[in-house]
Amino acid sequence: MTSETAIGIAEIRRLVVLTEKLSERLKAETAAFAARRPQDVTASLTETQELANQYRRESAQLKANREMLMAAPASERTALIRATETFEAILATHGRAVEAARTISEGLVKAIAHEVSAARALGTGYGATGQAALGDGRAITFNRTA
């Protein structure tokens, strides 16, 4: 076994382990969203981001060095392909869960903003003297692009 083959095997195995670890993390987050407990995700968010960044760097590095990848045995490359396919499926499910949580959160914020603005507008109109009554002077802002 050449040193390039050994290095390729080690790199692939490390990426497989990292991919599996990130997959498990995303599965746990998806389960938290499904259980309607998105707050449980915040505790491990930093670690998930670090794993994702590490995965991005290492996969790009391996992709850039195709010779090292091709020097590894087919069984190692197959293990990486399987781990990546599993990861992509989990990532798609996770993405849908995050999008659903975002949609629900935005809907709640919009509903609250609507109710607050509707409640504040009730006191406006014209007074007994014919002058416009002053409404609530407090401002409410809702940013639809946030």
Short description:
A two-stranded antiparallel sheet has the order 1-2. It is built from five helices and two strands. It is mainly α and 146 residues long.
Report on this structure.
The chain is mainly alpha-helical and 146 residues long. The chain contains 5 helices and 2 strands, in the order H-H-H-H-H-E-E. It has helices at residues 3-34, 39-42, 45-64, 66-71, 74-121; strands spanning 125-126, 132-133. The longest helix has 48 residues, at 74-121. The chain is rod-shaped, with a radius of gyration of 26 Å. It starts with a helix and ends in a 13-residue tail after the last strand.
Question: Which keywords apply here?
Answer:
single chain, 146 residues, mainly alpha, two-stranded antiparallel ribbon, 5 helices, 2 strands, 3% strand, rod-shaped
**Structure classification:** mainly alpha
DSSP helical segment count? 5
* Helix/strand order: HHHHHEE
Helicity, as a percent range: over 70%
Number of strands: 2
Strand line-up across the major sheet? 1-2
Main β-sheet: number of strands, strand sense, barrel status? 2 strands, antiparallel
Alpha-carbon distance between the two ends: 55 Å
Radius of gyration: 26 Å
How much of the residues is beta strand, in percent? under 5%
- The residue-averaged pLDDT reads 84
**Low-pLDDT segments, ≥5 res:** none
Q: What gross morphology would you assign?
A: rod-shaped
